[in-house]
């Protein structure tokens, strides 16, 4: 369904929602499917779009920040000897590719979608303007924020925290490959314990690698809760929006 300006009225929010405006952070690797690797897995993309479409129809206003690691990761390029700024700009452009793929999938699922970029690429997306982004959300569109913050040396996690604060999101959702935040790597330690809740300060002090410290510090300063949960379990995004105790909450 192509985007048009004559949109239907946005859906009324479903009673019982714990969050009515969220920022969802997706890694680029999440679009690869369970096998990981590179590129975009069509069935995974379709599944993510279907779930977000369902949540949108419940009346939740959704902003999305997507990474680009399935195409190019800036830090990896820099570690191989590339100029860090040049490498990071390449990573930003990779997020634009993913954003356009998500937009196509969302619109095929019947959800009006806007892509807004921190680097101007007017032929394919709007430049990011905060007030315009909020207006799109209020009209019922999913808004995908691409190209990170537009600046090198900042991760897409930090971009997600920044956009979440700017649009007045009630929570930052971090969708990952595991159930939540653990005291040890659950892939390496069979007895790893998942936290139901962890404070910003403990997250920062223990240097937990789920999200970078700049992003968490920004959330702490603005009292923005972070919800970390598994993307691969169908329906988890809606369950978290309804306030169910899924994954890990970072706050306080």
Summary?
The protein has 252 residues and is an alpha/beta fold.
- By CATH, the superfamily comes out as Acetylglutamate kinase-like
Order of helices and strands: EHEHHEEHEHEEHHEHE
Strand % is 15-25%
What is the total domain count?
1
| Strand line-up of the largest beta sheet | 4-3-5-2-1-6-8-9-7
Rough outline: globular
Instruction: From the 3D structure, determine the CATH topology.
Output: Carbamate kinase
Poorly predicted ranges (pLDDT <50, ≥5 residues)?
1-5
Secondary structure tally: strands: 9
- The top-level CATH class is Alpha Beta
Cα-based radius of gyration, to the nearest Å? 17 Å
Distance between the termini: 42 Å
Mean pLDDT score, rounded? 91
Name the assembly state. Answer: single chain
Label the structural class.
Answer: alpha/beta
Give me the number of helical elements: 8
| Largest sheet data | 9 strands, mixed
So, CATH architecture? 3-Layer(aba) Sandwich
Helical fraction: 25-40%
Which labels suit this protein?
8 helices; about 250 residues; 9 strands; alpha/beta
Topology (elements, then pairings):
Blueprint: E1 21-26, H1 42-57, E2 61-66, H2 74-79, H3 84-108, E3 113-117, E4 126-127, H4 130-138, E5 142-146, H5 156-166, E6 171-176, E7 197-198, H6 200-205, H7 213-221, E8 226-230, H8 236-241, E9 248-250
Parallel strand pairs: 1-2, 1-6, 2-5, 3-4, 3-5, 6-8, 7-9
Antiparallel strand pairs: 8-9
Helix pairs in contact: 1-3, 5-7
Q: Can you give a write-up of this model?
A:
The relative contact order is 0.16. The longest helix is centred in the middle third of the chain and has 25 residues, at 84-108. The chain has a nine-stranded mixed beta sheet, sandwiched between helices. The termini are far apart. It has a single domain (21-250), classed as Acetylglutamate kinase-like (Carbamate kinase, 3-Layer(aba) Sandwich). It has helices at residues 42-57, 74-79, 84-108, 130-138, 156-166, 200-205, 213-221, 236-241, and strands spanning 21-26, 61-66, 113-117, 126-127, 142-146, 171-176, 197-198, 226-230, 248-250. Helix 1 (42-57) packs across helix 3 (84-108) and helix 5 runs parallel beside helix 7. Helix 1 links the parallel strand 1 (21-26) and strand 2. The chain is an alpha/beta fold and 252 residues long.
């Amino acid at each position: 369904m192509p985007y048009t300006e004559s949109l239907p009225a946005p859906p009324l929010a479903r009673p019982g929602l714990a969050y009515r405006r969220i920022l969802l952070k997706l890694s680029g690797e999440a679009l690869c499917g369970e096998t990981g690797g590179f590129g975009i897995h069509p069935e995974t993309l379709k599944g993510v779009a279907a779930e977000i479409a369902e949540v949108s129809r419940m009346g939740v206003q959704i902003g999305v920040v997507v990474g680009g690691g399935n195409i190019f990761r800036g830090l990896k390029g820099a570690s191989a000897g590339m100029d860090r700024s040049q490498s990071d700009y390449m990573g930003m452009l990779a997020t634009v590719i993913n954003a356009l793929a998500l937009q196509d999938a969302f619109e095929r699922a019947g959800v009006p979608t806007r892509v807004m970029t921190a680097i101007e690429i007017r032929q394919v997306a709007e430049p990011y303007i905060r007030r315009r982004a909020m207006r799109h959300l209020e009209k019922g569109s999913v808004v995908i924020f691409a190209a990170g913050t537009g600046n090198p040396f900042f991760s897409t996690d930090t971009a997600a925290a920044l956009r979440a604060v700017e649009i007045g999101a009630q929570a930052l959702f971090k969708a990952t490959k595991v159930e939540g935040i653990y005291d040890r790597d659950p892939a390496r330690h069979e007895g790893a314990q998942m936290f139901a809740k962890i404070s910003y300060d403990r997250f920062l002090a223990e240097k937990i690698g789920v999200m970078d410290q700049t992003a968490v510090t920004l959330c702490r300063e603005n009292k923005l809760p972070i919800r970390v949960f598994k993307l691969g379990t169908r329906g988890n995004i809606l369950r978290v929006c309804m306030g169910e105790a899924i994954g890990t909450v970072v706050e306080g």
